[in-house]
Amino acid sequence: MHVSFHPDGDRATTWAAGSAAPAIPTASTASALTSASSARLNPGERLAAAPTLSCIVPAYNEAANLRELLPRLRGMLESCVAAGLGGWEVLVVDDGSADGTAELLRRWSLEPGLRALRLSRNFGKEAALSAGLVEARGDLVLMMDADLQHDPALIPSFVHAWRRGADMVYAVREHRDDEGPLKRWGSRGFYGLLNRGARFAVPADAGDFRLMDRRVVDTLLALPERNRFMKGLYAWVGFTTTALPYTPAARAHGHSKFRPLQLARLALDGLTAFTNWPLRAVSACGILLAVPALLYGAYLTVLYLLYGHNVSGWTTIVVGLMLFSGLQLVSLGIVGEYIGRIFEEVKGRPLYVVGERSGQGLPERRA
């Protein structure tokens, strides 16, 4: 048990430590969650409703940004209450930060409506978002980054779109002029591959900045997979969605935690989680190479039987062997990526482990 004190010495808070992530609901509980949350308010009822809002903020070494974000976010949420919101909470998920994020959250968790969840180590943003969804208690759930690129001033627009009937409202970038050409081309190529032949489309310029109805959140929590590419899951669950154009602000402090190698790994996770076209591409490539090879082999055999010519071309043979060996290794690598994902799933380890909890937010939801 950890006790931290307010700088003025007037209050203290107790943190619980060492709890593991709740078990992900299995397929048998998915239908129960879906049916339990199936009551949907029509736009007329939503206009008169006073929903509660949980704001999830994943953070990794974002102490400097949180010092600016949390006061702005609290002020905006309080103004939303004056405009008809029923209540709010801010849940910051500290994904194993090594800077002053933990101490900052200990102080802020003394304030009403602020909750902090510290994971035992860095599990990644997808796990941090999942942890926030499990802990969120509001009728609506808003997710935003801690780097001040997601403007809290857009929250009233999100809520307004929900009142007009949208179950999920996501912010979509108006342009990518602030990114380098390599990242723009890579993003365009990734989403083109991801959406190729899919039954649903993942918006190319949308991120995690979005508001979701409780029905959407419960459905996401019912999905049993542990390879959680959240952008794909948002699109997979469906529901009524609305895009809200925005231009992200410049990052106030620090730098992005996603390096090119990490982005490539995330892209690979997304491709293997939501499409099997790489496996089909390997099969197609094998057929395209095998059929001409068989025909050419038959041609050489007939040529030898008719004319007795010796088959020459040792250089061609060596190059061909190297080509086919390389293709086989690439094919094994692609199949291995999918097998590796199966291995991760069958181990059944929790997505994350909670190291500490603190703060008071909205009341617990009834089962």
Quick tags:
single chain; 367 residues; alpha/beta; ten-stranded mixed β-sheet; 12 helices; elongated; disordered N terminus
How would you describe what is shown here?
- The chain has 367 residues and is of the alpha/beta class.
- Helix content is 48%, strand content 18%.
- Strands 1-2-10-5-4-3-6-8-7-9 form a 10-stranded mixed β-sheet, with helices on both faces.
- Helix 1 packs antiparallel against helix 8 (214-222).
- The radius of gyration is 26 Å and the shape is elongated.
- The model is unreliable at 1-17 and 23-38 (pLDDT under 50).
Total helix count?
Answer: 12
Helix content bin: 40-55%
* Residue-averaged pLDDT: 76
User: Looking across the biggest beta sheet, what order are the strands in?
Assistant: 1-2-10-5-4-3-6-8-7-9
Q: State the total count of DSSP E strands.
A: 10
Main β sheet profile: 10 strands, mixed
In N-to-C order, the SSE pattern is EEHHEHEHEHEHEHEHHEHHHE
Please state the oligomeric state of the protein chains shown.
single chain
Q: Segments where pLDDT lies below 50 for 5+ residues? A: 1-17, 23-38
SSE class? alpha/beta
For the termini, the CA-CA separation is: 28 Å
- What's the alpha carbon Rg, rounded to whole Å? 26 Å
Question: Quick one: overall form?
Answer: elongated
Indicate the proportion of strand residues.
Answer: 15-25%
